[in-house]
Design goal:
- By secondary structure, the protein is an alpha+beta fold.
- Helix content is 25%, strand content 15%.
- It contains 9 helices and 11 strands.
- The strands form 3 sheets. It has a 5-stranded mixed sheet with strand order 2-1-5-6-3. It has a 4-stranded antiparallel sheet with strand order 4-8-9-7.
- Strand 5 and strand 6 form a beta hairpin.
- Helix 3 runs parallel beside helix 7 and helix 3 crosses helix 8.
- It is globular, with a radius of gyration of 20 Å.
- The relative contact order is 0.20.
């Protein structure tokens, strides 16, 4: 049987980190090293949606420094880092790929050992890269943990039990599972090239009459299909999942993630999670963490979501890696 390898690729795109499992046949040598890049001035960010329309230079400078650009909450790491020992280096010349594909970090783990670790674009091991949509996988994992901990009844529970402000909206009758899997039937525009798309507008400051801004925006959406009948990608729905988890647990997402994964698994560095004007994490995106800690997230998933033999969330969140 071929052995599984977890491969983590950080690339300067809108979905800036791709997490995947791959198989490997052969082996030999390339050590961790950085590819130099020109220093670019840190971009300003007056409105959250501007990040969708940054130039390539702004992305290269900004995605590795979001913790200096946006408000965020710390995700505390543990005292002892989960080991990632050096394995036999891979005989791969990745220089051209890293340069042409604008790769900030490339990490390959096999059997929990580092086979390849490279950096570019001025990024390095101590830096924290912004995940964008890989954060959805962490949010879904927290749903599984909240079910295991008894904060959420089940995946079949109507979300109105936790988010009553959505009553009378397109989310009437929608279950936790349907929200988690983006099959609510609510209409949503995720066009990253359109400044008027929902994905660009929903995180902008707006008058809410005291309601949580995510709930206020999402309750205005129209129903395009019956719940459970259509899959439609929606970052807004994962943000709703985050509000639901916070409501159900009475905890911040950052604190709960630290409690259930970041601290006990042994992440090496504190991470950060972008927050909105009322302090709610943007649970559909924007976790800032080191490349090695993203590798540990991959290793955690490959290990079945276990911490010293205990399954986090009975695996309920883990199969739904909404990348």
């Amino acid at each position: 049987m071929r052995r599984l390898v977890s491969c983590l690729l950080a690339s300067v795109t809108l979905a800036s980190v791709t997490l995947a499992s791959v198989t490997l046949a052969a082996a030999t040598s390339v050590m961790a090293q950085a590819v130099p890049t020109a220093v670019v001035e840190l971009p300003a960010l007056e409105r959250a949606s501007e990040v969708l329309f940054w130039s390539q230079d702004q992305r290269e400078a900004g995605f590795r420094a979001m913790d200096r650009i946006v408000p965020h909450r710390a995700i505390a790491a543990g005292g002892t880092a989960h080991p990632l020992p050096q394995g036999e280096p891979l005989a791969i010349d990745a220089d051209r790929f890293i340069l042409e594909e604008k790769v900030a970090g490339l990490l390959v783990l096999q059997d929990g050992k580092v086979r390849l670790e490279r950096y570019g674009l001025g990024f390095g091991p101590e830096g924290r890269w912004t995940s964008f949509s890989v954060a959805k996988s962490l949010t879904s994992t927290l749903v599984g943990a909240a079910i295991r901990d008894g904060f959420i009844e089940s995946l079949e529970t109507p979300i109105m039990q936790y988010l009553p402000e959505l009553s009378g909206s397109a989310y009437d009758g929608v279950t936790v599972r349907q929200l988690l899997t983006m099959t609510s039937g609510a209409d949503w525009n995720e066009d990253y090239t359109d400044p008027n798309a929902d994905v660009a507008r929903f995180f902008e400051p707006h008058e809410t009459g005291g309601m949580d801004p995510t709930l206020h925006y999402m309750r205005q959406l129209k129903r395009a299909a019956e719940p459970g009948t259509r899959w439609h990608y929606s970052t807004g729905e994962t943000n709703l999942v985050g509000v639901l988890v916070s409501r159900a647990t009475g905890k911040t997402l950052s604190g709960y993630l630290s409690e259930k994964l970041w601290h006990p698994y042994g992440m090496e560095q504190d991470a950060g999670w972008m927050i909105d004007a009322v302090g709610q994490e943007a649970s559909g995106c924007c976790v800032m963490a080191s490349l090695r800690d993203w590798g540990r997230v991959g290793q955690f998933v490959l290990g079945g979501g276990t911490l010293t033999g205990e399954v986090v969330g009975d695996g309920l969140g883990l199969p739904q890696l909404l990348l």
